[in-house]
Amino acid sequence: MSSRNTKVYDALIVGSGASGGWVAKELTERGMQVLMLEAGPPRVPTRDFTEHVWPYQLKFRGFRDQQALLENQPVQRLCYACDEYSHQFFVNDHENPYTFPLDKPFMWIRGRQVGGKTFCWARESYRYSDYEFKAASRDGYEQDWPFSYRDLEPYYDKVENFIGVSGSREGLEQMPDGRFLPPMRLSCGSLLAKQVIERKFGWRVMPDRVANLTVPHNGRPACHYCDECQRGCYTASYFNSPAVTLPAAARTGRLTLVSDAVVSHLPMNDQGKADGVYHIERTTRAHREARAKIVVLAASALESTRILLHSTSRRFPKGVGNSNGVLGHYLMDHFTLEGAGGILPALKSSVREPIGNPAGFLIPKYVNTGSHRNKNFLRGYRFDGDASQSAYEHAFGIAGFGRDFRRRVREEIPYYFGITAQGECVPRYDNYVALDPEKKDAWGIPVLHIHASYGENERAMAKAMRQDVLAILDAMKLESPNPPRQEISVFGKNIHECGTARMGNDPKTSVLNGFNQVHDVKNLFVTDGACFVTQGCYEPTLTIMAISARAADYIAEEYRRGEL
Amino acid sequence: MSKSKITAKRPATGNSQFTIQNSQYSQFRILTRRQWLLKLGEAAVLLGFTGTAPASETTASPLAGLAGEESAKALPPGLYEPSSDHLAHVLASDSLFHAVPPGSETDYVRPRVGAYQPQFFSSSEMQAIRRLVSLMLGEADDGSVAASAGDDHENAVAVVAEWIDLRVASAAGVREAARGLSPEHRALAVAYHGSAAAVEELETAQPERICREGLQWLTEESTRRHGKPFLDLPDEQQTVVLRKISDARPPNAAESAGTRFFKFIKHEIIRGFYTSRAGLKEIDYQGNAFHAESPGCGHDHPNTSQGGSPSTGSD
């Protein structure tokens, strides 16, 4: 049944998102012939992008086709971005199922297409520091990463210089400054928050650092602030791999990109090395095989781990890279405390303020930094906030009808303030993924069973987060304040799933070495979020890209020297 | 890009008021959609539609750095560059109807030929809905305008009434789909929302019943008080009937089929109207715009600063 593509590439990359794009760019620029396999279809901007569509141009006026979403995307629909404008960037849940215990729901948001989730990501880009990379040395919990901030710093520079990240320099030890384009301006309400919160609590309030261009950069125009990034971007003014890293790779003439190729598993040769991959054509279901001297998995944290778990042989009965039983374990995803906010009475107005910044403000982590040690929990949290005028949401609260009602909607514009706390999920062996013994996806590949829940440390941290949010609400002197909701977010909801093939110096307790190389298999690498050892309280994508660029540097050098 | 246009001047004396003054907005460089497109056109012309543009951080045009069509053609499917191909697309998106690209998975409204055929309401019910919308929006309802092919005229009352019809007609399918969620997907939705209420709402909401019972209440109340069905009453009497169920009625007034109907229909009128072109214009909606610079605060708020801490910006 399977047909064999006889060409043997220097390297084969599975996945075309943030990680795969960087590996492809670096390897092709170093002269290597690269085959990239992407499970999903290519996207066409003029067909699939909707950022300038008005609600009245859509059948459900932007309020979502609930029936279609419930039927086809019962999981994806829970993501804020999977709506009437952008559902095409998310998978069909029946084609891409997974399982979990009923009492441990897991929300797995997936984008399978050329570009992966980089069309829809929220673009916040913060460097990790040794508070993350050397966290275990600091508090004794679990493991350090196998490198330090100094090792990754040049790659953060490289990634930021290339993709463009806007931000302010803050001089914070726990969240290093980088190579920034000018920051976006805070709104009136965010400035008010900055004034109040910095004075009252001494916590830094700063504009989000986002991978949006505030000035033209590397051949891409500046952002025009339509603020609908998750619908695609004609002008490619935020980072996505199809307009930024992948074209750079393609221009070398050494990238072969094959879309609609769903990777099933890795064939292993007699020397215990990966021979390439088995894949299945998405639409025809035809089985194929592709060959390369090096295989790089960058298919997203859980998908890369699924491929490894599904690559069983006599030599690797529990999956490739799993001789120690660590593969699949130490799954993490940030948890959030949401729903807090209220109205800023001083900013009520009858005049519209310009809007459109695809970013708000950040309060970086302050607990467990410097000499501060919290006795109730390890690690820490940060806040995301924003403040802006209501568009028309306040109309639901204005009584009556007729011309006077409309006048009040137009002239009595409230100014909303909202704040969310996001905390670090500590790595635990108990949070794991494994192959489901029965269920298969649309291509006959075994799916993941995901077993994850938050533990004592997260619950203790959530208490402190809650207290701080309430203190902020109080200090802001809000009208109609809403406290954060009681329950912390469901696992997976923040779409920062990381871990399950972690790095480490000790092959007995980790899957990958410090250069993302599988301990057991010399020519096999995993460069996406699966490699994370801890995840701090900041978004992982920038760090995924820096790690991918660093791994690619190592791969190219080792390959040149004939070591792989 | 010049910063001078949006840098607020510091006031000489402290004033802790955070008030917004109309005149201050003139300092923002907000481009209209058309102005922005002109700039885009300029950039495309300057580049002669060829090759890659020089990257420059000093060029004022928001589209400086625009790449042409030729280099985009060389890229494999799925890859793209900011391209003048999009010019026509963005221009088209300003009209009432969006051109439907072949193969699009987006459910765009298409121009209709002929009069609207209600999907849920009978034609007399639809007349009553349209009348209610016009009363609640304070708009005259000539009832005669229906958008036809190529017609760029939007009748807000008709558009909102049609939205309500679609909303109610879709309800049975939504309920059925919600009840069809697998146990795992239902458990996930409950955990996501933090309670079962949102899921139960999807499973049980019956706007069809609310509307049928509400319209019946309207007929009965009109006949009882004024001796005629609702649609046959003069404007003032219709308004009197509507006030009885309005959310502006005295707080201790009883709930009824009428008040439930008012609540539903007002909610949908707000959603339908403020997403219409007329509604968005009325509230001076600032989104989906083109700005030359980050549209943050440009006011003279004292004791505040946009940037990072100046004392720590070493490199």
Give descriptors for this structure.
heterodimer, A: 564 residues, alpha/beta, seven-stranded mixed sheet, six-stranded antiparallel sheet, 12 helices, 17 strands, 18% strand, globular, B: 315 residues, mainly alpha, two-stranded antiparallel ribbon, 11 helices, 2 strands, 44% helix, 1% strand, disordered N terminus
Strand content of chain B: under 5%
Question: What does the overall shape of chain B look like?
Answer: globular
Average predicted local confidence, pLDDT of chain B: 76
% residues in beta strands of chain A: 15-25%
Helicity level of chain B, as a percent range?
40-55%
Taking the alpha carbons of the first and last residues of chain B, their distance comes to 23 Å
What structural category characterises the helix and strand content of chain A?
Answer: alpha/beta
Indicate the topology.
The complex is a heterodimer of chains A (564) and B (315).
Chain A: E1 3-14, H1 18-29, E2 34-37, H2 45-48, H3 66-72, H4 130-133, H5 135-139, H6 149-163, E3 165-166, E4 180-181, H7 188-201, E5 206-207, H8 245-251, E6 255-258, E7 261-265, E8 276-281, E9 287-297, H9 301-309, E10 335-343, E11 361-363, E12 381-389, H10 403-411, E13 415-423, E14 432-440, E15 446-451, H11 456-475, E16 479-482, E17 524-526, H12 541-560
Parallel strand pairs in A: 1-2, 1-9, 2-6, 3-4, 9-17
Antiparallel strand pairs in A: 5-11, 7-8, 8-9, 10-13, 10-16, 11-12, 12-13, 14-15
Helix pairs in contact in A: 1-8, 1-12, 6-12
Chain B: E1 30-31, H1 33-47, H2 69-73, H3 85-92, H4 123-137, H5 156-179, H6 183-193, H7 197-204, H8 207-226, H9 235-245, H10 257-273, H11 277-282, E2 290-291
Antiparallel strand pairs in B: 1-2
Helix pairs in contact in B: 4-5, 5-7, 5-10, 8-9, 8-10
